[in-house]
Amino acid sequence: MQVEQERKAVAKQLLTPQAYERLMNVRVANYTLYTQLIELLIAMTRNKKVYGKMTEEQLKDLLEKLTFKPRTDIVYKHK
Fold it and tell me: What is the CATH superfamily name and number for domain 2-67?
């Protein structure tokens, strides 16, 4: 419980209000994705990859990178 409160506090510091709201929506929909995203944000902050507050668009880009799965098409060739 304390860890969750610390994560929320860090998220509020790093994100704009709109981005924070989106992050909380992700938390409700997919908790494992939320934890991956929060850990990535903390790591980026430690490595000085984030300057200032992250916008909702930047958060969307991170979400897209985390959830990207290449599309695999199965093609049947008839002889």
Answer: PDCD5, DNA-binding domain (1.10.8.140)
Neighbours of 23 (CB within 10 A): 24
* Average pLDDT over every residue of 18-37: 92
> Measuring CA to CA, which residue among 39, 37, 45, 35 is closest to residue 14?
45
pLDDT greater than 90 at residue 2: no
Under the banding of pLDDT at 50, 70 and 90, the label for residue 42 is: confident
pLDDT at 25 over 90: yes
Q: How far apart are CA 34 and CA 39, in angstroms?
A: 9
Are 60 and 49 in contact, with CB atoms under 8 Å apart?
no
Q: Under 8 Å CB-to-CB from 26, ≥6 apart: which residues? A: 33, 34, 37, 63
